[in-house]
Design a protein that fits this description.
With 304 residues, this protein is of the alpha/beta class. The protein is built from twelve helices and twelve strands. It folds into three domains: 84 residues, Arc Repressor Mutant, subunit A, CATH 1.10.10.10; 108 residues, 3-Layer(aba) Sandwich (D-Maltodextrin-Binding Protein, domain 2), CATH 3.40.190.10; 108 residues, Periplasmic binding protein-like II (D-Maltodextrin-Binding Protein, domain 2), CATH 3.40.190.10.
């Protein structure tokens, strides 16, 4: 129980907010307040002072932080050495995935990893690439799977899977029977885009720029936060869109929509693994990284 309270305490210090700590830990704010209250009762002193809307560590809070960081480090090292000794891999692993990966790829990867290591507790947070990078930087997540290279410092980035952005239309669209079109024709019809902060959107804009076409020329009629919503809008004939091939391959095969090639660029990209360089990695984290970099992942996805 005390270990749980220490974990909550460290998160509150890191986030400088009870509400933000609750969100990062997937707890309610009263639950976070209760854990801090338990610590304060256990040690018989206040750990935080509230000044205006800010929370500030007391002298006792600073002392606890010093030892809590060391306790956290030692706990992680103990778990790793115990697992090395016993040959078993267990523990909690918090994974973050950008929307495309979280919807169409991560469930298969995590399912296969869980079959290999049933004692590892896996959790998955799905958000856009920008949010996942922020969570990795704040060490709220162990490993992130995103759609573009990170821009933050202290983050390691490695490619793990190739992807291609493809142009999709409704099955009745004038382009649906064409072999290819030019990117310079994309301004002829309404366009449906992912939201700002999306890795797919950033990659699309970079590829369009490379081909000599500015994304500002697109006739964007709506911005949507999920691939499922974009596919539904395209299928309904509201406009055209560009999203990951992994997100549309089943729909295209089923004849629910059409995929059209672009003449100027293949719009290829790499999905990437990101993690914090300074965050201690457990054996479960190391094994998951090894698994992501193996040929097994591509085979699992191609045969899903």
């Amino acid at each position: 129980m005390l270990n749980d309270s220490i974990r909550v305490f460290l998160t509150v210090v890191e986030k400088k907010s009870f509400s933000k700590a609750a969100k990062a830990l997937f707890l309610t704010q009263p639950a976070v307040s209760f854990q801090i209250q338990m610590l304060e009762e256990y040690y018989g002193t206040r750990l935080f002072d509230r000044v205006s809307r800010n929370i500030i560590l007391t002298e006792a809070g600073h002392l606890l932080l010093k030892y809590a960081n060391e306790m956290s480090r030692l706990q992680a090292e103990l778990e790793r050495e115990m697992q090395d000794l016993t040959g078993s891999i267990k523990g909690k692993l918090k994974i973050g995935a950008s929307t495309t990966i979280g919807e169409y790829i991560a469930p298969y990867i995590l399912g296969a990893f869980k079959q290999m290591y049933p004692e590892v507790e896996l959790s998955l947070e799905v958000s856009n690439s920008e949010d996942i990078e922020a969570a990795i930087h704040d060490t709220a997540l162990d490993i992130g799977l995103v759609e573009g290279p990170p821009i933050g410092k202290d983050l390691e980035s490695l490619p793990f899977l190739q992807d291609q952005l493809v142009l999709i239309t409704s099955k009745d669209h004038p382009w649906s029977n064409l072999d290819s079109i030019s990117v310079f024709e994309l301004d002829k019809y309404p366009f449906i885009s992912r939201e700002k902060g999306s890795g797919t959107r950033m990659e699309m804009e970079q590829h369009l720029k490379k081909a000599g076409f500015s994304a500002n020329n697109l006739h964007v009629i709506m911005e949507l936060g999920s691939n499922s919503a974009i596919k539904a809008a395209v299928e309904s004939g509201l406009g055209v869109a560009m999203i990951s091939r992994w997100a549309v391959q089943d729909s295209v095969k089923a004849g629910e929509m059409a995929q059209v090639k672009l003449k100027e660029d293949e719009f290829e990209r790499s999905f990437r693994i990101i993690y914090h360089k300074k965050k201690f990695r457990t054996q479960a984290s190391e094994e998951f990284l090894r698994f992501l970099k193996s040929d097994e992942v591509a085979e699992i996805l191609e045969n899903r």
